[in-house]
Amino acid sequence: MNGRVILIGLGLLFGAVTHGALITYQFNDINAAIPDNNANGYQNSQQITGVQESLITDVDVKLNISGGYNGDLYVYLTHSSGFSVLLNRVGRTADDSFGYGDAGFSVTLNDSALSDIHLYGGNGDAQLTGTWQPDARNVDPAMVLDTSTRSSFLNAFQGLDLNGTWTLFAADVSGGGQSTLVSWELEVTAVPEPVPVALGVFGGLVMMASLSGRIRRKLRARSGPEGESRTL
User: Would you list the DSSP string of 188-229?
Assistant: First the structure.
C-alpha cells in the first residue's frame, strides 16, 4: 500500500512537471536595419534571468521583418549550446538561385507546423504571415537549396536552462532591398529542474508512508487475538 502511494504521488508530480508553463518574451520596437548584401549581418541579444521553471521543453519563435527581399535572408537563433536556423534564403532551389522576392515576414516558427517555410511558395510580393516550420538547413547561404539536409530545428533548445543570453542573428547575403528587423518573440514551455523537486517530494512521501506504517502497527498492538483492548 505504501509503495503504491509513493508511485501515485511521483506519477502526479512528474505529470505536472512535464506539462510545463508557457512563458512569452516579446522584444518589441527593435526596428534595426539588416545591412544589405553583407554577411556580417545584425544581431540582437536578450538576457533572461531569474526564471525558476527553467528547463526548456519547447520553443517557438515569432519574427517580424519588414521590407527587403525574403530570398536574401539568413536568420538563426542561439542560446547556450542550442542553435536553430530559422530562415536560409527561402525559395532557393537548383532552378532559382534568388529565392522568393516577397517583402518581409510576420510569422510563427514552430517545429510542429505543417509546412517548411523554405518552400512556402511565394506570397505575391507581400509580407508572409502564418505558422511554419523553421528552415533548419544548417548550410552556407551561398550553397543552400531546398534539397539541403534539415538538421537545426528549434528542438535544439530542449533540455537547456531558459536563463541566459538569447541571440537572434539576421543577415542579408545578396543585394536587392532593405530588410528591417521590427521585433521578435520567444514562446517557451519550461518546467522546474526535476531532480531537486522530485527528491523533495519523494522524501515527503516516504516520511508519510513510514508514519502510516507506524500508526497501523500501533493499532494492531492495541488488539489481542480476539480483538480485546490491550495497553501499549
Answer: EEEE--HHHHHHHHHHHHHHHHHHHHHHHHHHHHTB-TTS-B
